[in-house]
Amino acid sequence: MKTFPSFFHSLTTLFFFFSLSFQASPSESLYREIHQLISFKNVLPDKNLLQDWSSNKNPCTFNGVTCRDDKVTSIDLSSKPLNVGFSAVASSLMTLTGLESLFLSNSHINGSISDFKCSASLTSLDRSRNSLSGPVTTLTSLGSCSGLKFLNVSSNTLYFPGKVSGGSKLNSLEVLDLSSNSLSGANVVGWVLSYGCGELKHLAISGNKISGDVDVSRCVHLTFLDVSRCVNLKFLDVSSNNFSTRIPFLGDCSALQHFDISGNKLSGDFSRAISTCTELRSLSISGNQFVGLIPSLPLKSLQYLSLAENKFTGDTLTGLDLSGNDFHGTVPPFFGSCSLLESLVLSSNNYSGKLPMDYGYVTEDERSQNDVEIMLSSSIWWSDVNDSTIWEDQIFYVLAIIYGIVSIYSLIQFVRLQLRVLDYVWKTQHSFYFLHFVLPGVRAVVFIFRRNVLNMHSQIMQHIFLDIPSLGFFTTYALLVLAWASIYCQARSISTDGLNFSFFTITGIVYVVQISLWLLWMWKPVGVMLILSKMFLAGVSLFVALGFLLHGARLFLMIHRFPVESKGRRKKLQEIGYITIICFTGFLIRCIMMCFAAFYEGANLDVMDHPILNLIYYLLVEIIPFSLVMFILRKLPPKRDITPEDLHEKIMLSSLILWTDVNGSPIWEEQTFNVLAILYGILSIYYVLGLWFLSSGGMC
């Protein structure tokens, strides 16, 4: 009886260890997968590349391998220098029975992609940024991959052989990226979609030399299309799909003649997307969700335009400009039914014949009532300039040159001030000239590269490039208000301890609010966020204008009360008065223009395709006021009579004092770390914005 428990205990222990050994050993399916994985490793030139891939280990522990239910479901060998032919990948990896995802981007894979098979469970295949070659038609082998939904073969050297028989058999895909290959010709997209697009939602063919027609109107599930850099594209039809939020990115569409985006859910500013489609003849945007006023379309060759079934608003038609086209024959009679039409521009066409005296609204009675004008030879200069890309480029180049001159002059003044005032502490005048050097320089660079700014995928980045200098000018002239407030308080024996704190607090709040609006816009790109951003800048401009009016007028009146005994005091009085009037007027005009830009699309300054409006705006609110202020403040402190030896000694002494004070002062230490924290915060924000911008460009 005593041996029974011992025997039972031994049996239980044996059964327990047997169970553990059974659970620890790979299943039969894993043995087959180990053999395939090790076979792939053995063909690699670098035997040390996948060191943890060993036949005596569970493959689920291999680097880059993911398992589920004792089956290899995902392999990620991206950015590993495999240096192997595609045939080895196809025979060893793609036939794993449970494999669902295979990522081989930038893995130095070469060779042709013909004649391969894959597991029916494979849903995602990424072979981008390799050296795969051969005709793209060999992708028909993917017909055996019945479950494949995602295929990325971008950035290879695939080509289209021209005339082919049969179709692509890619009708099960949801995402297809063929961008940045060597595809050319007029039948590429037709071949891809020859068997229908089935579930296709994302198609990228940018960075090729595709020409001819692109008709994806039957792809009812398509939500993303990138044809940027397809500079030879002439026909693009993406009608009756599920595109939403924005128009498919076109890039340089100078050869495009037919563009149909009807029957989608698009919104936003469609004129921006077609700004470079100068040869467009047919445009249909009907059946979408565009709102607001109909924008100006600088399309000289346009013959057909459909805007039906949208949410455009505005008054009854009062003006129609059809100049600069190739219309011929007699003037269409339907204009006679437009009783409110006041202006009809038909210049630079081939109309013939005469207009009847009783031509609808051009009778003497209605002409006197409506002030109707018929112009067959003249034109409206404003429209001609705005619609001309040559004038547009020249105006923005002129703005860039003017801003560059202001920036260089400010740099010269800053250097002169540094040579005259050898103190190591920057005064307000130092900061003023330095910011006046940086901000106009930024404006000049943005205007020089405005085409690149306009063609950005992300609309928020365009606004950031334009709004940052505006915030910078706010900071620059707020410094001047701070200096005047300090002078007034010191003259009245009032403590100035809280002035600097108030200045930095208000400035910090302004920047935090603006950055928050940008981030909210990234998170939810709706039109109301743009309106809030514009109204916020308008409020900031009004705040600065009132600051100049308050502190400038107060300082002016204080100096005016004292007897003007010296010429210097009279000059200082005049300077304060002039600068107050100039800055108050400039920031008030900025406030008014920003309000118009927020609610009236015709005054939108950010799109930079209204050259005359931008020229007037930047001249009135920045260039002229700030140039006048720089001219008034051109006089620098008197130059001290010192020898070169004294200059060298003073610089060395100032540097030594600065070094000693900074290293021995806890205040300086704290301020230094605060500045570093702010800089790291700004860099982090730019890093996040950059990552978001790169990710918004799609897989390309």
Characteristic terms for this protein:
700 residues, alpha/beta, Leucine-rich repeat, LRR (right-handed beta-alpha superhelix), 5 domains, eight-stranded mixed sheet, five-stranded parallel sheet, 17 helices, 26 strands, disordered N terminus, leucine-rich repeat, repeat, Leucine-rich repeat-containing N-terminal plant-type, transmembrane helix, membrane
Walkthrough of the structure:
The chain has 700 residues and is an alpha/beta fold. The protein has five domains: 26-136, Ribonuclease Inhibitor (Leucine-rich repeat, LRR (right-handed beta-alpha superhelix)), CATH 3.80.10.10; 160-314, Alpha-Beta Horseshoe (Leucine-rich repeat, LRR (right-handed beta-alpha superhelix)), CATH 3.80.10; 328-383, no CATH class; 388-640, Rhopdopsin 7-helix transmembrane proteins; 643-700. The chain is built from 17 helices and 26 strands. The chain has an eight-stranded mixed β-sheet, with no helix packed on it. Strands 14-16-17-18-20 form a five-stranded parallel β-sheet, with no helix packed on it. A hairpin with a 4-residue loop joins strand 1 and strand 2 (72-76). Helix 9 runs antiparallel to helix 11 (459-491). The longest helix is centred in the C-terminal third of the chain and has 35 residues, at 527-561. The N and C termini lie far apart (78 Å). Its main location: membrane. Belongs to the plant tobamovirus multiplication TOM1 protein family. It is found in: Vacuole membrane.
